[in-house]
Amino acid sequence: MIHEVNGLDVHILEAGFESPGRPLALLLHGFPDLAYGWRHLIPILADAGYHVVAPDQRGFGRTTGWAEGYDAQLGPFSLLNMARDVLALVSALGHRRTAMLVGHDLASPVAAYCALARPDVFPSLVLMSAPFPGPPALPFGTAGSEAPAARPNTENQKLAAALTTLDPPREYYQQYLSTRRANEDMWHPPQGLHAFLRAFFYVKSGDWPGNTPHSLKVRTAEEFAKMPTYYVMDLGKTMPETVAPFAPSVAEILACKWLTEPELGVYTQEYDRTGFQGALQAYRVLSDPELNAELRLFSGKTIDVPSLFIGGKSDWGTYAAPGTLDVMRTKATTRMSGIELIDGAGHWIQQERPQQLGALLLSFAKEAVGADHTGDSGLGDRQPG
């Protein structure tokens, strides 16, 4: 436990801390994950010479200090405050900067804003599973127009309305996860929490044969409906009801080496204790224009540190926001070294294919900060305690 970190007591998993002066590799998880999700990758990076730290993010696991409940203030879960969490953790650990910052899923935009706001502390960036489209833009060239007042962003509302007109009516998963009922639905599902989590992890993995992702042409209801129902749900169904028909067989569970039953038991135990609401708050932030208004401070700013995107070939997350992958590569970043899609991996890359992921991360780190990444690059600055 690391105490007094931007108002939190942060629970971390770490390795490589025995030797002083090691460069810091910071691993940020998404939903519904935990620091534990990096368990296969942590020793790989530690063996390569890093001080590896994976925190339970604000709202998750054993990290405390965040307000519970659907009616809690959402400001603390804003992207910039969660970036402050990361900055404060680096400082609390006695490091001046990271040598490796990795953000997966919901932590991808958090990591992106870390690099956008403080490139001196986060001099390289790896985004996983969720492409970053850049900060929201301020209206440009409106001084001469007769009606300069900016209209509120209604794209999400228009898409939600259009999805309900399909046959059958549909609902985007982020909209569902933002509702008051979602926490209770997932915390106490009919099939039990363990069985729900097993089905959810399975259906979003490379093990489920139904995952054949591809680019979507435009942001329309008809295009979105091409995604599996765990992304674009049947309207009125809960997430546990949505994934239940695709639950793996006993044989498939036994064959799953990346998430054994005892390992899944860790997730079951933690979410049974905390529920999901803290983890769901970030989805509500993403859909609230007021909470994202502060991001316009970075309007027009690009990520200028060396960056890399890693996805799973069987993960729809790469394409869930049409066009974002190209925008990230051509506009939001200026030094993106590549887009790597790992064969056989779905959404849970760090669990499904840790060896391949580790090799990509170490290669990128070598490219980004020089061959002697544990030497005199300065990225291993750790102050005496």
TrEMBL record:
GO-annotated molecular function: hydrolase activity
ATP-binding found in the keyword field: no
Classification via Gene3D superfamilies: alpha/beta hydrolase (3.40.50.1820)
UniProt cross-references to InterPro entries, sorted A to Z: AB_hydrolase_1, AB_hydrolase_fold, Epox_hydrolase-like
Annotated Pfam families: Abhydrolase_1
Domain of life the protein comes from: Bacteria
Protein name stated in the entry: Alpha/beta fold hydrolase
SUPFAM superfamilies: alpha/beta-Hydrolases
Gene source species: Gluconacetobacter asukensis
Positions of the AB hydrolase-1 domain: 26-188
Keywords: Hydrolase
Lineage: Bacteria, Pseudomonadati, Pseudomonadota, Alphaproteobacteria, Acetobacterales
